[in-house]
Amino acid sequence: MYKVFTLFVYLLVGCSVYAKGSADVALKDTSEVIKLNKQAYDNRYTSPEQTISDANKALAIAEKIQYTKGIGESYRIMGIGNYYLNQAGAAINNYLKSLEFFKKTGDLRSQAKVLNNIGNLYLDNDYGKALEYLKSALSLTQKVYDPGLKASLYMNIGNVYYRKKSFSQALIYYDKSNVIFSSLGDSINLVQCLQNRGVIYYNLHQYDIAEKLLLAANKAGKERDLNKPVASTNLTLAALYIVQNKFDAAEGIVQEGLAYAKALKDEKLTTDYNYTIYQLESKRKNFERALYYLQLIWKQDSTVHTSNESTQINMLQEQFKQQAKQRENELTIQRQQNDRIKFWAVTVVAGLLLVVIALLISNVKRKTVTNLKLTDLNEEVSRQKDNLDRVNHHLEEIIDERTKDLQIKNKKLSEYSSYLSHQIRGPIATLRGLMNLEKEGLVDEKECINMMDKCVSDIDQKIIEMSEMLNDTSKTAF
Q1: Does domain 22-106 sit in CATH 1.10.10.10?
Q2: pLDDT of residue 381
Q3: Is residue 180 a contact partner of residue 147, using CB atoms and an 8 Å limit?
């Protein structure tokens, strides 16, 4: 018994250790997913390829441990990496997968982040859809407390108004985002705010303010190794210097920005820089060099490119919706099949219940009939018992009467015996005396015979009287 108890204790301890170990491993893996996704997100401005690589690693671990939130976030970060690599098709595919996982978990904050990212995809090709997604994200953000996300949405909405050339409206949103990012101490997004506000003031032809903001953004971006913001900021700075005929300053900024664009492997930024160099050389009247850079620019018209990109995104969205609809239809069919199975199962169970109920009712009826028969039998037995009681009572009365009669007769017999012994003894004694006298010759024979006859007659009379007395119940004594 002691050995069994010891083995049981060991098993309990082993199970506890295994459960604790499994929980620790799961927690460690979850932490690793969060760490990789954060690392990937932080690299979005510096190395989008690294962002995608780290997000893929996080996704593999999250799928292994079935960490739904981690899976959704990994897809979102991959989408951001593809966005900065100008891979709109891959980005929208990542974002839609991410959104699907976050809807399953009911995570409103993460859903708002994905809608914000999708809105960014439309910034350069469909302002209406960009605003639609960004405002939907802002609506969700009102339900959760996330000032950083709200600031990002303000900044992106400002980007839409900037592209619509509503510069004053854009500046209002940029200022809102700048206030929130400043309160949060978000130095990375503050660089983006500096750049955005500098671009607005450039378009408002307030070049002094624009140059001050853009140079501050350039400096802060370099300090934080933010390649993308530096490259984007330098594009606007170069344009500003070209407008002011500061060609040498423009060339220096362009070469610096072009190096960042190439480091990022951002073809769109590289093309934009080629176009800026074309503008610079044209302004310098260096037409041969300008023509060279013009030949490097995409042959496809930017409007067509933008239209095609928008169409590609819409097609991918529609394809994703169709796939989601197909999955929903498959789930509906599966639910219908399950409902049919449940219906037949319920029908069979109901049928069995009806059979059981019918058997129970039949059994109850049989029991009722049996109980009625038993009741009748009990009543018959009761009647027979009553009859037996009456017969027994009558027999007892008869026995009492017979007993009393026997008692009377016994009494009479007793009295008869006493009487007989008393009444007959005398004549018999007389007869004996006469017989003795006759033997001795002391009495005359004839006289003796007469006297003996008299004695016999007396005895006979006494016997007749005794017989009459015994048969006459009215006489109780002699």
Answers
A1: no
A2: 79
A3: yes
